[in-house]
Sequence to fold (78 residues):
Amino acid sequence: MPVSVWWLLGLLFVSAVGTWWVVWRERRRPSSYRRRWEAEMAEWRSLPTEVQAAHDNAVLDAAEAAENAALARPAAWS
Fold:
């Protein structure tokens, strides 16, 4: 067989083993942190409505301040 066929077979073998290894590792330790997200949402739901509203308002005020600061600064490409 030509050398290029051996290279192709080797590449396919390495990619198959690599795919198996990544899937195996992802199943053992998921990278999505779903449990952490669920815990954070449970903590958020346990907060009183007033605290949630105050946090929301603070985040919106910070976003508005950042937007105003960005608009007040001259653009770098002008």
